[in-house]
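Hey Z.,

So I finally got round to the 2-phosphoglycolic acid thing we talked about over coffee. Here's the setup:
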Amino acid sequence: MRKPFVAGNWKMNTTAASAECLAEALVQKIGHQEKVEVAVCPPFPYLFRVGAKLAGSRIALGAQNCHPDNRGAFTGEVSPMMLVDAGCKWVIVGHSERRHLLGEKDDFIHRKLVGALLANLHVILCVGETLDQRRSNQTEIVVETQLAGSLESISSDQLARVVIAYEPVWAIGTGQNATPDQAEKVHQFIRGWLDGQFGETCATTTRIVYGGSVNSGNAAGLLQQPNVDGALVGGASLNADEFAAIVNIAASVK
Ligand code: PGA
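And the result:
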């Protein structure tokens, strides 16, 4: 019913040459994978080059961020329209590194999400709690606040182009992934929230993927959970064998 979705977030890594190599290797290994929707999100300067390597494969191109507006005096920013122009299908918004290191708030993330959807992009919306928030039992309220703030006034039709990534901040880049049970509980909560806000059809069709130290060793356990519909992969997506293995695990367990 929900096609698994696996995306690679390359973050501020690779060079032009290594990005091309990585894309080439992925096309060779998983370029024809039909059971899983796959996207990779390279740094902005390499979008065109990586896009050229992905051409003709089933792997889609995505970006790691965008500005809400399509043009104007916003030095250093990249617009949704430019991403479409560069061949992107996807964009990540609300990543915790931008929330916590760069101070992005839900209202700005909401504006980006709206701008991206209006430009016809598909959006990976990231939410997740910090370790302190989890320890003080605030996980659900934090996730709910982020969802409500980011998805305010979004229609059901627009939601069909959104994938939600649950990424506990304490699990990102730390090697300490959430257990399958921890992930499933929050994914269930998110699906319940979607049901309340958008109705049952949206809740059952929206994909909710897990992110935070996913690798080929822990992917099966996480992806076997009924409400975990895929993965947003950081570090492990820089290794073609690892990322391909995660995609193939998604194909076999979902
Ligand atoms: P990680 O990053 O897989 O390196 O933990 C995930 C993410 O930030 O999307």
